Amino acid sequence: MSRPEHTAPPEIFYNEDEATKYTSNTRIISIQNEMSYRALELLALPEDQVAFVLDIGCGSGLSGEVLEEEGHVWVGMDISESMLEVAKEREVEGDLFLQDIGQGMGFRAGTFDAAISISVLQWLCNADKTVNEPRSRLRRFFSTLYSSLARGARAVFQFYPENAQQTEMVISAAMKAGFTGGLVVDFPNSAKAKKYYLCLFAGFANTDTKPELPKGLGDEDEGRSTVSYASNRVREKRKAVGAAARGKPVKDKKWVMHKKELNRARGKEGVPTDSKFTARKRKPRF
Length: 286
Hints:
Elements: H1 4-7, H2 10-13, H3 16-24, H4 26-43, E1 52-56, H5 62-69, E2 73-78, H6 81-89, E3 95-98, E4 112-118, H7 134-148, E5 149-159, H8 164-176, E6 180-186, E7 195-202, H9 229-245, H10 253-265
Parallel strand pairs: 1-2, 1-4, 2-3, 4-5
Antiparallel strand pairs: 5-7, 6-7
Helix pairs in contact: 4-5, 4-9, 7-8
């Protein structure tokens, strides 16, 4: 089976049909959620603070929804216009940008508290056009990402390297941009469960305490629900979905009020005013 990045450039591969198929596939959604929760765990964000997170290659907003559920604010960017259209149709809460990350980013210095990326980085390693030179694009991407992160912030990339040379090229570009950190490999001896996470540190917020590279999950941990944060969080989400199916409200008044405030901040017209009837359950009409 050929790798997607060998088939066509991402903006062409993820056309309207592929974007819809990707977002409606329950297996893909489940895997994406697990990897997003694991990446969020590696970010090690303070539990009592709301972080401003950049979602690189956000696609249709699957990983962004994980950030929302954990109470964070996010901004997403993707090169596929079709993927972003699906994200808008799904009414994700993050702001969205159409952007080729290989051309760099123009955010103000120190804008984001963290960055997350799921299944994206390997696309930068492929010369899908004659003008795209992987090393140059990686260098431009990591250098602009470094400047857009607050000092001490982390960036976590789940990706699928094709070979050891590709992994070395990615890590080398990140280190030359000023990052420290390294590669975290979960279940290294399992062909099915093995996952690569590039965990990077954008300097040190506290010079007295340097961050340590997290340890990967081992094969002895596989299948144990007490070990994998990602598995626990996905299981909790499925329970919530099940509760909703049984009639228990998930989108309560707090959620509705937050959504309305967000729409007002974005300048949307026709947002209903707040009242004592906001989010109140209506009686069925016959």
